[in-house]
Design brief:
Distance between the termini: 37 Å
Strand content: 15-25%
Radius of gyration: 16 Å
Helix content: 25-40%
Structural class: alpha+beta
Shape: globular
Length: 197
């Protein structure tokens, strides 16, 4: 009962844009194919297992049985990862910029935005969330610059897990401009995002 009440409370925080813009607004509309971020391509070359859906649960299986279950698992992993991982720039951690790897790869979890997003993806896959419903997104904010988030595709829409916020929000409700997103079905491919959909 507590978990249902918890999840129901999370739903109360949502204003799904589908009511105002039509059902398609709850889901990202991908545009033309773009070149993947350099750090992502380098990670996939060095650790290809981080860039595949092979061997994981696929859509329609696992925990993805409804929005209440999704929100509970997404919220738990988002908050826990944000709390446990010490945010630090790659230049400080590794002595070089733009190195993508799971933040939990260290004895003491550390990483910047993309490392945290990759760690959340790995944790959600371990929890049974279908890998092909999890994808990385690159966004831009005026004071922040480029930033990487994890997006989870649920039956109710695309939800953002952000290292800068504990609350999970619809992709339409984050304070960013979308630059590009990874394909959930083909993780090596990236596409532009239609911000106007």
């Amino acid at each position: 009962m507590r978990s249902v009440a918890f999840a129901a409370g999370l739903i109360g925080l949502w204003v799904f844009p589908a009511t105002a813009r039509g059902p398609q607004a709850s889901f990202m509309a991908l545009a033309q194919e773009i070149t993947p971020p350099r750090g992502f391509a380098a990670m996939c070359g060095a650790q290809p297992e981080l860039c595949t859906n092979a061997g994981s649960i696929h859509a329609g299986a696992g925990i993805d049985n409804g929005i209440l279950e999704n929100l509970h698992v997404l919220d738990r992993i988002n908050r826990r990862t944000n709390r446990v991982v010490r945010q630090e720039a790659d230049t400080r951690t590794y002595g070089r910029a733009d190195l993508w790897m799971p933040a939990g790869a260290h004895a003491k979890p550390v990483g910047d935005c993309e490392d945290i997003a990759i760690e959340k993806r790995q944790q959600l896959i371990k929890a049974g969330f279908p890998a092909d419903r999890l994808f990385l997104g690159v966004v831009h904010a005026r004071r922040l610059g480029l930033h990487v988030v994890l997006v989870a595709r649920t039956s109710s829409g695309d939800l953002v897990l952000d290292s800068r916020a504990d609350a999970i929000r619809s992709w339409r409700d984050v304070p960013y401009t979308w630059i590009g997103a990874q394909s959930g079905q083909e993780p090596l491919r990236w596409f532009g995002v239609d911000n106007l959909s």
